[in-house]
Amino acid sequence: MPWLWGLSLGVLLPAVAWALLASPADWQQGETVRIMYVHVPMAWLAMAGYSGLALASVLALVWKHPLADLAARELSPIGAVATALCLATGSLWGRPMWGTWWAWDARMTSVLVLFFLWVGHAALTRAFEDEERGARAGAILALVGVVNLPVVKFSVDWWNTLHQPASVARLAAPGMHVSMLGPLLACATGFSLLFATLVLARVRAAVMERRVEALELARAREADRAPGLAVPA
Fold first, then answer.
1. Which of 29, 86, 135, 228 could be joined to 33 by an S-S link, Cβ 3.0–4.6 Å?
2. Residue 118: which of 69, 61, 46 has the closest Cα?
3. What are the tens digits of pLDDT across the range 107-157?
4. Inside any domain, residue 232
5. Dihedrals phi, psi of 2, to nearest 5 degrees
6. What stretches of the chain show up as alpha helix (H) in DSSP?
7. What total number of domains does the chain contain?
8. Where in the cell is it found (predicted)?
């Protein structure tokens, strides 16, 4: 974990400094374009993280992998935060560009649905006393919500929205100058590393917590079997 923390912060901090201090302002949007260096990586992570959540759900439901449920449980709060940051920065960016904080176009609405799916999964997996039952219900919800990912991705192509088409992931040359594309990709890499590090840290802490609980339960059972031990009422 120290190596992962060092790597993620070592990439993210210079990337953010590059984006906020050294990259040029946009000729139309001015300095507000710098919101892009947080908004776009958060949007990528919201979708990529949910794809990871769906994969963990498949591993849990089909192959009963013990770490899959745990990984999905710890992933959903971080994914919800990333999606919330995507919505918040998008709103801040949209106000000076579009003249409104929010518009119910296809991209915004589908990302809002994605946020509710993240929050719903986080709540559902913690709503049952039986953790296995909660994990199963959360996995089903995660797999049902996968149908929303293509809507988020292709909404700007399928419907008339305020958002522009893809500027980076295109078969032709990216519609962005290298002076902006470089810091954007650096920020995306740094935020992705931080996202993965946070998920691994939460999973590691959850595994250790379960080991402690199992050890305490084993000790309690041994104490109950010990001869002459007074059992409390």
1. 29
2. 46
3. 999 999 999 999 999 999 999 988 889 999 999 999 999 999 999 988 887
4. no
5. -60, -40
6. 2-17, 36-62, 66-98, 106-124, 131-144, 148-158, 178-225
7. 1
8. Cell inner membrane; Membrane
Q: Which residue has the tokens 């109950």?
A: 224
230 part of a folded domain: no
Burial of 104 (0-12, 13-18, 19+ CB in 10 A): exposed
Report yes or no on 233 lying in a domain.
no
Instruction: Give dist(CA 199, CA 197) in Å, integer.
Output: 5
231 within a domain of the structure (yes/no): no
Task: Give me the phi and psi of 26, to 5 degrees please.
Answer: -75, 145
State residue 231's pLDDT score.
47
- Domain holding 78: CATH number? 1.20.120
Q: How far apart are CA 39 and CA 42, in angstroms?
A: 5
Beta bridge partners of 30: 26
For 119, the domain range is 2-164+176-225
φ and ψ of 180, to 5 deg: -105, -35
pTM: 0.88
